[in-house]
């Protein structure tokens, strides 16, 4: 009988502890406005029946300038005379409550929290409802820990930067390379985290790192010194898209500006980016925070200003409200004294942060009497939460290759050789920006639930510097009915401030895979654990390696999910959220080139613009069954309604081949496309339907194709499900020109749905008159 996993044991422990302690632990004292404090309970800012802006204005009016300045940083001071406690703003919840930031700690009644798969893995599910559900669970656990005095309520997650370069160490934190996918992930995860009811927030999320941030430390260039030279076009149709979705659709409470400069200006001191775009164009109702120490970096490392107080003033005037770091606390006073900024500028920054705190209920008195005040230790690491972590891992796993050996059989494959440096890992599975998991099931433990195992790591660590254990691994594969190699990367290879040098497996891992596959008595399956793509062309082309699975970093239940896919308990349905390039792509493309489109000898980036060879394309993913698409309802002609006011004031021609989006009536309804998805195989399965569009030929600045929608649908073997995808010209058929202006090209657009191609003729229409 297989040994019980640490996850199961911890679950039993938590259930026993919860039963023994039915009542909540004593909740934390009120952050402010304690009803037992006779000096402060009647103050205007404590009166919950007043409008938020009135309460905020009253509180700011009671603060001294020195107090205000010490509230501009992440470790905000207490103000005892007003009954306000100190507060640590920095907490993280990228894929579970994390202890990376100083605002959260584990221990006592909160030994751990549910650790979901890393974001890149969850993104591979292409399941919007799952992303929101995970956000709700994470915020339940965050609120519970806040009530127990172990966490804050402001979480600087998610990371929605574009995974532009396959070597980026933090690509694992992102939803991938496609801006539409990243934007949908951002909006849904934020909605789940914040769970807004009216103006009230459950927790406050933060979309980071704005903007064009995707290099940490490559070839002597680090994020602190990097000046990202970005065209208006790439900024508008790639880098800014997820952040706009986060603010406009997700209603996020915060945006974090990044370390790097964009076109010569630090992002945290650029009023066009902060006040102009985030708050002005997109309408952020919240605060803007710096990445940690980035205001200091602006002065100390980038030498953007002559004095530190000038850096402090530039950041505040640009629209920064909160500094993660001490810089504003130290230098803002002198900036005010020198007249570089006024106290009113400080007040405006404070108004944004204090409003968010009030929306969180931090000035509403007793926490236990508020919504979510009943959450406590029994609401963390619950069986339901851990089951969701397992389901998320199952949905995110991608089957890259299958020559027919998968799924394995419990009757024919009774003994499995489990080999590789990632074959029995635990912490590796949760990636970075993680916390303390409820428990783990390693790949070895997961497989052991299905079959007898023979385990050999093959390498002493992920670097795999020697081959002195290869012989033992080969022997294991000779004595097993099937071999599973669990290889890949970990945080020593890809992480924050650690970009990869290349795309191949580290060290001698490839040799280990080759030798074991050659020696194996039965089928050989390669399982890859990584955040970024790996060039495994050798395995793709080797007939002795019959299947390849990418598990990403699958979270605390990753071993169970991998085993469930290997043995067919789960039929894989994940799709790659990023392109897997060959090694020579990385060898000739510098990370520092921010251009998305090809030019000269530069090949471009991501599936939208790169046309060269790939190992596996964006959206690739196989199943144990087969699916067929057919169009049940597909309009062939669509009209773009134009704003009639334009023609009264401007010499505007209907014959224009590309209409500006702002000149169109974009509030018109979408056109539905109905697609039948038929399961033509013998196994029930979940199919991820990806719909792409291509603009008319001749649009030199347009992408090859772009994702416009996706749906995940479960289809029983032999049956059919109909999926509706709404197509709107403004949202889905528009492109961005070289000046950063979004336009809708007229003419014949193509929709790509699997192997299907469908043409749509798009015409401008003014009061029933078509161009």
Give the number of DSSP strands. 28
Give unreliable regions as ranges.
Answer: 1-26
By secondary-structure content and strand pairing, the structural class works out as alpha/beta
What is the total number of structural domains? 3
Shape: globular
What spatial order of strands do you see in the largest sheet?
Answer: 11-16-15-14-12-13
CATH class (first level) name of the largest domain: Alpha Beta
CATH architectural category of the largest domain: Alpha-Beta Barrel
Helix content: 25-40%
Rg estimate, integer Å: 27 Å
| Biggest sheet character | 6 strands, mixed
Q: Terminal Cα separation, in Å?
A: 74 Å
Under CATH, the topology of the largest domain can be stated as TIM Barrel
Strand content: 15-25%
SSE map:
Elements: H1 6-20, H2 52-62, H3 65-69, E1 75-76, E2 87-88, H4 119-123, H5 128-147, H6 179-194, E3 207-210, E4 217-218, E5 221-222, E6 227-228, H7 232-239, H8 241-248, E7 254-257, E8 261-262, E9 265-266, H9 272-281, E10 287-290, H10 294-300, H11 308-318, H12 327-337, H13 343-359, H14 383-396, E11 398-402, E12 415-419, H15 443-448, E13 452-456, H16 470-478, E14 482-488, H17 509-519, E15 524-529, H18 537-540, E16 545-550, H19 558-566, H20 583-588, H21 606-609, E17 627-633, E18 637-641, H22 645-649, E19 658-660, E20 671-679, E21 685-694, E22 706-715, E23 720-727, H23 729-732, E24 735-736, E25 742-745, E26 747-753, E27 756-766, E28 769-770
Helix pairs in contact: 2-13, 5-6, 6-8, 10-11, 11-12, 14-19, 16-17
Can you put this structure into words, describing what you see?
The chain has 771 residues and is of the alpha/beta class. A hairpin with a 2-residue loop joins strand 26 and strand 27. The chain folds into three domains: 246 residues, Glycoside hydrolase, family 3, N-terminal domain (TIM Barrel, Alpha-Beta Barrel), CATH 3.20.20; 206 residues, Glycoside hydrolase family 3 C-terminal domain (Rossmann fold); 139 residues, Immunoglobulins (Immunoglobulin-like, Sandwich), CATH 2.60.40. Helix 5 runs parallel beside helix 6 and helix 14 packs across helix 19. Strands 11-16-15-14-12-13 form a six-stranded mixed beta sheet. Strands 18, 21, 22, 26, 27 and 28 form a six-stranded mixed beta sheet that branches. The N terminus is likely disordered.
């Amino acid at each position: 009988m297989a040994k019980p996993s640490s996850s199961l044991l911890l679950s039993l422990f938590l259930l026993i502890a919860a039963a023994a302690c039915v009542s909540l632990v004593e909740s934390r004292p009120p952050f402010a406005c304690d009803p037992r404090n006779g000096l402060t309970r009647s103050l205007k800012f404590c009166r919950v029946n007043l409008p938020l802006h009135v309460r905020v204005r009253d509180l700011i009016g009671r603060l001294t300038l020195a107090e205000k300045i010490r509230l501009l940083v992440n470790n905000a001071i207490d103000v005892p005379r007003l009954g306000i406690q100190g507060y640590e703003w920095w907490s993280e919840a990228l894929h579970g409550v994390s202890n990376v930031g100083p605002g959260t700690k584990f221990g006592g009644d909160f030994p751990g929290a549910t650790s979901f798969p890393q974001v890149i893995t969850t993104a591979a599910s292409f399941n919007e409802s799952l992303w929101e559900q995970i956000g709700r669970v994470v915020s339940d656990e965050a609120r519970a820990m806040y009530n127990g005095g172990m966490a804050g309520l402001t979480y600087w997650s998610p990371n929605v930067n574009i995974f532009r370069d396959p070597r980026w160490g933090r690509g694992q934190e992102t939803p991938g390379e496609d801006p539409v996918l990243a934007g949908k992930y951002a909006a849904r995860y934020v909605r789940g985290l914040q769970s807004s009811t009216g103006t009230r927030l459950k927790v406050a999320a933060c979309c980071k790192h704005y903007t064009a941030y995707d290099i940490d430390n490559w070839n002597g260039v680090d994020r602190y010194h990097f000046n990202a030279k970005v065209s208006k076009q790439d900024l508008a149709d790639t880098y800014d898209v997820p952040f706009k979705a986060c603010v406009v659709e997700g209603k996020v409470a915060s945006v974090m500006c990044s370390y790097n400069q964009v076109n010569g200006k630090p992002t945290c001191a650029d009023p066009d980016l902060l006040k102009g775009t985030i708050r002005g164009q997109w309408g952020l109702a919240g605060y803007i925070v710096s990445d940690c120490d980035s205001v200091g970096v602006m002065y100390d490392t980038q030498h953007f200003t002559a004095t530190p107080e000038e850096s402090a003033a530039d950041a505040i005037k640009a629209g920064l409200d909160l500094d993660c770091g001490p810089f504003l606390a130290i230098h803002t006073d002198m900036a005010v004294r020198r007249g570089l900024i006024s106290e009113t500028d400080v007040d405006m920054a404070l108004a944004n942060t204090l409003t968010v705190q009030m929306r969180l209920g931090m000035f509403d008195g007793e926490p236990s009497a508020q919504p979510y005040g009943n959450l406590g230790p029994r609401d963390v690491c619950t069986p339901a939460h851990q089951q969701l972590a397992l389901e998320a891992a199952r949905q995110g796993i991608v089957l890259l290759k299958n020559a027919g050996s998968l799924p394995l059989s419990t009757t024919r494959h009774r003994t499995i050789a489990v080999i590789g440096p990632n074959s029995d890992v635990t912490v590796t599975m949760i990636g970075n920006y993680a916390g303390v998991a409820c428990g783990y099931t390693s790949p070895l433990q997961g497989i052991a639930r299905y079959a007898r195992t023979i385990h050999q790591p093959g390498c002493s660590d992920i670097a795999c510097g020697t081959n002195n254990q290869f012989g033992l691994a080969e022997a294991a594969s000779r004595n097993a009915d099937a071999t599973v190699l669990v290889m890949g990367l970990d945080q020593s290879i890809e992480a924050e401030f650690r970009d990869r040098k290349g795309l191949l497996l580290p060290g001698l891992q490839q040799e280990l895979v080759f030798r074991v596959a050659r020696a194996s008595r039965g089928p050989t399956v390669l399982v890859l654990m990584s955040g970024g793509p790996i060039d495994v062309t050798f395995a793709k082309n080797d007939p002795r390696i019959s299947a390849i699975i990418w598990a990403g970093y699958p979270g605390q239940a990753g071993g169970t999910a991998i085993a469930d896919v290997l043995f067919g308990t789960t039929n894989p349905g994940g799709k790659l959220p990023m392109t897997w390039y060959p090694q020579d792509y990385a060898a000739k493309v510098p990370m520092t080139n921010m251009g998305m489109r090809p030019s000269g000898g530069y090949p471009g980036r991501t599936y939208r613009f790169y046309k060269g060879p790939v190992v596996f394309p964006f959206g690739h993913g196989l199943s144990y069954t087969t699916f067929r698409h057919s169009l049940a309802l597909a309009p062939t002609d669509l009209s773009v309604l134009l704003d009639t006011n334009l023609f009264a004031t401007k010499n505007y021609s209907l014959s224009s081949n590309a209409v500006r989006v702002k000149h169109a009536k974009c509030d018109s309804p979408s056109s539905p496309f109905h697609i039948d998805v038929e399961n033509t195989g013998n196994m029930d399965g979940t199919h991820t339907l990806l719909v792409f569009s291509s603009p008319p030929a001749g649009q030199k600045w347009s992408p090859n194709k772009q994702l416009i929608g996706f749906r995940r649908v479960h289809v029983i073997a032999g049956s059919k499900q109909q999926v509706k995808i709404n197509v709107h010209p403004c949202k889905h058929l528009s492109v961005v020109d070289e000046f950063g202006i979004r336009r809708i090209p007229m003419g014949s657009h193509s929709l790509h749905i699997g192997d299907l191609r469908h043409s749509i003729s798009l015409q401008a229409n003014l009061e029933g008159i078509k161009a």
